[in-house]
Amino acid sequence: MNSAAVVNFAPEKGSVEIREIPRPEIGDEDVLLEVANVGVCGSDLHQWTADHSWPVNYPVVLGHEFGGHIVALGKQVKGWKEGDRVVSETAAVIDKENPMTKQGLYNLDPTRKGFGYGVNGAMTRYVKVPARCLHKVPDSLSFEQACLTEPCCVAFNAVVGNGHIKPGDRVVVLGPGTIGILCAAMARLCGAEVAIVGLEADKGRLKIAEESYGCTPIIKDATSWAFERDGLGADMVIDAAGVSITLKNAINLVRPNGHISKVGWGKDPLGFSLDPLVQKNATLQGSFSHNWPIWERVIALLTSGALNVKPIIGGVWGIEDWHEAFEKMHKGEVVKSVLKPV
């Protein structure tokens, strides 16, 4: 039985199309998931526009933010049953013998392959998932929201796991995309005062961050806000944009002994000196992906309502309408597009 899938088939710009693919065959430790909803990530857009900076196994079905129901189980799968409501982590292939995996940090296993670039993702009806990736979704949490667990986990790790925010800290977030807004929301949950910075074209997204998450929206230059308390700068700056200039801005905005969390990707060289980082004795921390305990905590936050992702969902589209969903995100008309395969 074949299903429609959004497939990235080549490295050239625009090489994404609907293709019919067969229902996946599962292994002994896998489940077959019928996808209820799948979020469109900025990385999906980057593969579509061919400006990504990571290797892709072409052709590949896009989509790594997803949830659905278990419809089949491998022979060795325990603790799950058909019909269970679940979301899946992104680390589809890991080396169990890798030292990082043995520490529980399988997200940092250099051989890791994720859904949507390394193996087939979830922008289709059925996806094969290792049972170790699964997390239970309570009945009270809709899949439209639950499928955004993954970007929420990215934000949690950038802000909390790698950020160490304290109540009363002043935090600047650079880049009001999905991850930037969710980082801002996480910082607010930690008790920080938060400013989020974008361009004129980002006014709609900045308004959502202001009205739904209590952030101060700023166009272009956050210097006055960052320095207004004591003239030294922000306690923490989160670079969720990724381009070189935002890291330079982050170094300028952070206070001495402050912290920069870089979660945005950018393939271009920096082209500037890091000496101001040294002079400020500031910490520059990369933040990548997430692991099991982060997922459990984020699902709890979503279920309780402490973290509400509804304001960033700009619409739900069928698989056949993937192009419109991608375009609206790419143009900044919505923060997050969600697809519904069936």
Provide a concise account of the structure shown:
With 342 residues, the chain is of the alpha/beta class. It contains eleven helices and 18 strands.
Q: Please name the CATH topology of the largest domain.
A: Quinone Oxidoreductase, Chain A, domain 1
CATH class of the largest domain: Alpha Beta
Radius of gyration: 20 Å
Structural class by sheet pairing and helices: alpha/beta
Through-space gap between termini: 14 Å
CATH H-tier superfamily of the largest domain? Medium-chain alcohol dehydrogenases, catalytic domain
Mean pLDDT: 97
Number of domains: 2
How would you spell out the order of helices and strands? EEEHEEEEHEEEHHEHEHEHEHEHEHEHE
Count of distinct strands: 18
- Taken as a percent bin, the fraction of beta residues is 25-35%
> Segments where pLDDT lies below 50 for 5+ residues?
none
Largest sheet: 7 strands, mixed
